[in-house]
Structures are given as C-alpha cells and as structure tokens.
Amino acid sequence: MVGLLGRGGMGEVYRADDLKLGQPVALKFLPRDVERDPERLERFLTEVRMSLKVTHPNVCRVFDIAQADGRHFLSMEYVDGEDLASLLRRIGRLPEDKAVEIGRQLCAGLQEAHDGGVLHRDLKPHNVMLDGRGRAKITDFGLAGATEGIAGAEARAGTPAYMAPEQLAGGALTRQTDIYALGLVLYELFTGKRAFETRNLNDPASLTTSTPTNPSAHLAGLDPVIERAILRCLDPDPARRPASASALADALPGGDPLAMAVAAGETPSPEMVARAGGVGSVRPLLAVACLVAILAGLGGLWALGARTSLFHYVPLPLSPAELKVVARTSLASLGYPTPPVDLAYGYGWDPAPVNAIEARSTSRDRWNELSTLVPSPAYFWYRESPVPLVPMNIMGRTASFDPPMDRAGMLFVRLDPSGHLWLFRANPPELAAAAEAGREPDWNALFSAAGLEVASFERTEPQWTPPGPSDAQHAWVKGGVRVEAAAFKGRLVWFEVMSASRVADTGEPVPQTFGQVARQIAQFALLVAITLFAAFVARRNLRLGRGDTRDASRLALLFLIVSTVVDLLRTSSSTAAFLGVFPQNLALNLFLAAWLWIGYLAIEPYVRRLWPQALVTWRRVLEGRWRDPRVGRDLLFGGVGGILANAIISLPHAATWFSLPPPTPAGGGLVALGGVNHLMAALISIPPVAFIVPVGILLVLLIARLIFKRPWLAYLVAIAVVALNFRAWAQDPFLASSQVLTLVLVTVILTRLGLFALMVTIAFLSWDVVPLTVDPASWYFPYSLMSMLLFAALAVYGCVIALGNRLSFKDWVLDGE
After folding, report:
1. Predicted pLDDT of residue 805
2. Can you tell me the mean pLDDT for 169-188?
3. Could you say which of 33, 80, 83, 122 is catalytic?
4. Is the previous residue joined to 605 through a cis bond, with omega within 30 degrees of 0?
C-alpha cells in the first residue's frame, strides 16, 4: 500500500503495488459502516460485476475483488493523472481540438459499456481520469446497472447535478440517460462552465422544459457543429437525443474512430466497425446512374453471352423432359421396355472436338464448324438402373459415369441435342439366356434412331473393343464418321457414333512426372499448413478474446443450411439413393462449415485491425441491417464493379477486331438446365461462392500484408503471386492479361469499397449460371430471364435503399433537387 488517492461516497481509493503483477494498481475499499449494510455492499459487488464486462482503452479496467481483515476491496487499473473536474478547475477549459479528442474518447468508452449492456448512471467530470498521455478513462461504475429495467428509487441514485430529467423523476433509464450526462460533461469540457448554474431539482416539471444556455454564449467562435451536438444531448426528450454514443462521436467535427483506433495500435470491436462510416447514402443522380449502368450492362452481357456461348453454335432445341421421353422410347424400341428402379439424366459437352478446332484453325469463323460435327460436342445423357444410383464422388452427385456401370441391367444412352441416338450401352444379365436362333438386332432401326442412313455407310472391320461382353460386332464408316455396334445373345449391348479420327486409349501406363508429383505434394502440404495455421491462430484469437464467435457461428450455420438445400435440390428422386447420398453430403458440408468457422475466426480479427473500413458494410449486414443505406450503396457499387469485371473478362472476344481468332466458346451452366430444381440450386449456390472467393482473396492479401508492411507492396506481391499461377499464359496471353486486369479491379474494390462490395462483384460474375439465349421461343429462355431478373432486382433494391431518407426520386425529378 503506497498511499491514499481519494475518498468518495462509495469508499476510499489507495494506490498500491501488485507484487505478483509487478505494476501499480488502485485499491478501492468500502467504509466500515457500508460493509455492514447489505444493500450498499451489494451495490459495491454490482460495480465489480458490471465493470468486469467492460474492457476498453477509455474505461478504467477492473482486475479483481478480494477481502482482507473483513473488508472488501476492488483491484483496478491505476491511472497516473488527474480527474477532469480538477483539470477544469485548474485551467478553465480545454482547447477545442483537444476537447474534441477527449470527447471522442469518452464516446468510445461509453459506447463500449453500452454494448456490454451496462449503464454508468453517474457520469461526471469527477469520474473521468486523464492519464499521463492525456487519454481519458471513465471510472467509478459503482452505480452501474443493466441497460434495461432500472426505474424508481434505484434510478435516482447518483449525482443530481449530472442527472437527466427522467433520472431525477425516477423514470426508466436508457442509454440516452448516460448521453444526457455526457452532454453535461462535454459542455464543461468545451466552455469551462456548467450547463445549468442553478437547477430546481425538486420541480420535475421544470426539468422537462428547461434548456441550458447556448455554449457559444460562454465561448465565442465555438464550432456550430459542436454546439448542436451538445444541445442535442441535453434535450429533455430522450427520444430526441443521439441514438448512441457512437452517433454522438460521428456528430463531432473531424476524426475517424476506426483510423484513431488503428493509429493507437488497437483492434476496433465489431460493433465499432459497424457504427463507423456514417450513413452511407448516395445522391439520387449517382444512385440512378449506377442502376442504369448495371441494367444496361446486364443487357449487354446477356446478348454477348448468348452470342459467344457454345450453344449458339450447337443449339439445344429440346428440353430435358422431351429428351428423357426420347431416351426411354429408344430403350424400349431396342428391347429394354422394363421401367427402371432409378434413373438420372443431364446435359454435357465434350471438349475434345473444341480443342481440336482451336489447335488447327485460326479463322475468325472457326467455331461455325461446331454445328456440323458428328457427333455433336453437346449431348444429353440418360441412364437407368435396377438398383438405386448412389454416386461415389465426394459431392454425392450422380453423373454419366458415377456410379460406374457395374451392375447387370444398367442402361446408358447419349443423345445429341436434337434427340438422335449416338451412344447406347447395356449390361447384360450375369446368367445369359440361350440366344434365339437367327436373332440379330435391327441395325436399320439403330441408324434411324441416330438420324443416319445405313445405306450411305460402308461395312468395315470393327476396330473398337466393346465396353462389355459381346458375341457379335459390326462397324460402318462414311467419310469422317464411324459407327461401331455389338450384340450379345441376340440383344444389342453397344452402339456408338464417333469421329473416324477419334484417338483410342491404348491402356499404356502413363507415369506421373516428378514435377506433377512434387506439385501434388506441395498443394497437399500447403492445404495442411494453412489448416493448421488457421486452427492455431483461431485458438489464439479465442484465448485472447479477439474472435467474433457469434458471427463465425452464424456464417457456418448459414453455409451449412444453404449447402444442404442445394444438395437436396440436386439429389436423385429415389428415396434409397437420397438416403445413401445425404449422410455423405451432410458430412462434407459439416466439414466445410467447420473449416469456414475456423478460418473466419483466424482472419477476421486481423482484418478488423488492419483494414477495418473493409468490414463496415459487412458488419451491418451481419447485424441484420439490410435496409441500411450503406448496404444499398455497396450493392450498387459492387454491381457496377461486377459489370466492369465482366467487361474485362470479355475483352478476348474483341480479338476478332484485330483479325485474331475468337476465344473458346463457354459451355458452362449445363447442370442448371436439368430442371427447375437444378436451376434453383444453381442460383442458391451463388451466395456461398460470393462469400468464399472474396475471403480467399482477403486471406492472400492479409498474408502479404503481414509480410510486407507497406500496403501497396503487399497488394502488388499478392497480385503477382496469383497471376503467375494462371494457366492461360501459355495458351492465351490475351486471356491471361484480362484475368490480371480483373484481379487488379477486384483488389481495388476490396481495399476501397470493402468486403461486401466485393461479394456483390463476385456474385455478378456468376450471371451465367445457366446457358444464355435471347430467343424467346427457346425452351430455356425463361431460365436465362430468371437469372437476369435476379441480378436486376438486386440492383433495384440497392438503388432504393441507398437513397436512405432522401427525397423520393419522383419529387427529385419534378422539383429538380
């Protein structure tokens, strides 16, 4: 014990040295008469419980409570300085810039207490300490209580001169009660005078109508912004005071709470991040301009996507429902009329003929050849099984090759987009019946089903080995088209139309090169290292109280729900197949959700410390503030960014302007054409991708930022590392260059607009989740329209809420404001 620091209504405070911690502390003892008063003792214990909830640089920290010689005492942070009341008595008032700084610190400390569910109830200059560096710390939570449920006699506890009218009247206390007291402190801070020289505390009616003298009456030249902020705090009506201490801080001139926290080496809390950045609304003209740009861009992308799609050259005239009927009818005509236990179907495309054209032709019209190829690079596959089709892949999705054709009675058909049979395969029974004498498949019917004329083909020697058992095999050839077929015991088991130049798989072993093995080992080691590092950092953040477990859990749960819904929409209609696949899908989704939870806990605190501005809108979204104007603003800006990114990615299509060959047509999105359920699954899967990709980019930038202290150097290195891994450099430097430009744009959006805006940008890069067509007569035109309308609706919603409480667009147009 070093010496007495002071006495107050709730006890004596001594300075002491903690021999274990090796640092000075302040010990607060209750008077002996209070020790014997259960009510006052409980108030002391309440101070401890309330104070332990609040940890902030601008709040005096409480360490512990103990008892010695029958007396309770509180161990708390020792502040080497003086209280604000003493300072104001000594110097009168603070300079305006210093008063603003102290005012912001008081707002930050009080907001942290309120976020912890604590009201101070006795905020006054005596309870504000200034340390040796001039930093303010709020002390003495002896009257602290929960932010809800305080009223009556308990509400009137405190210092009357610094009480709000509702507190003096014994009414319910809220955060605005502390805001009123803070306004009184700020009044003295800027003017050196009390707001009310005299107050009739016994006349509650006068308290609800009395207003203080304007601060500018005591200090000429006071910034009007400061005066308005103080007077708002002192409004007798709590509803008209600032909504929060952070809102009051925003009302003070200059300064950026996030920048101040980063400059002080502190990590702003998630709540502070969400409160930063102001309202974020945009002017009507800018909002409408962004909306028009997005809608026009979507229209242009729709037209370009339809023109450059693989299915512009290879049309899809029949829907899956129609092709499924054709496939079943073909199987019945081939001698397999029995309905299956389970079936699956979908679209696909073969990249081999596309790659062959790309390798041999540099013509501007080279892709027109796709429409004449036999077989077509686009196809519809259909398979039937006497047992449930339970796939083996980790995603649990049935494919043309998964599960494998390893059961007797399994059937497989491949049709071209017009419904012509180009591949048939059947697994005969393990116990084959005796062949009927002279029975042979009707080859003419097969050629008719394939849309070919058997008379125009020449018989030739079979060359290809049938995929299953057979006792009869035939082959035909015509120009560049070859047909192979086989039968077993008089029944057709294989029929295939192929290119005569098709390269056969010889079955020769293809050993991996040292480079391939080394790359696989490096990728696996990197994945393990990242996982272990993320787990270690997440555990450390949790131990230090930095991790945001609430939002990490929300995101993991949301990811789990969305992924499960997508799997349910894509799962086979067979109950047995569903039960066989769902546990596997659920296990994978649980693993990915856990990985996401760990990764978020590892990354988010560092991003909050280094780039808190990047998380402002994202934090508001997590708080459920979907109608926040800043959310609307970033929906618009992110949408414009997505349109720009798509425009950059589409630059290779301008190659024809320079007499260069056009890039490979896009063949993606076929899974979504499997039906409405598959379309919904494709659209619902956009948000998880829009979240995971930006977080991955953020992780790369974060690692670079931790290694290289200069932000611009970190960004440059991160872009270079990612760009060097683009495979397009060796194949198409033009495409690789557009990818680098897109990466630069993505980095700018992330660092200038934030994480949420980048998520919107990535979402807009997924506009082609279905093959696009501008032909209203096409069966999948509604699919294209639904995809476009989804993004258009997102942009319209962003425009509406980005305007905030501004004048309506109608009035803006009519009045010219």
Report:
1. 58
2. 90
3. 122
4. no
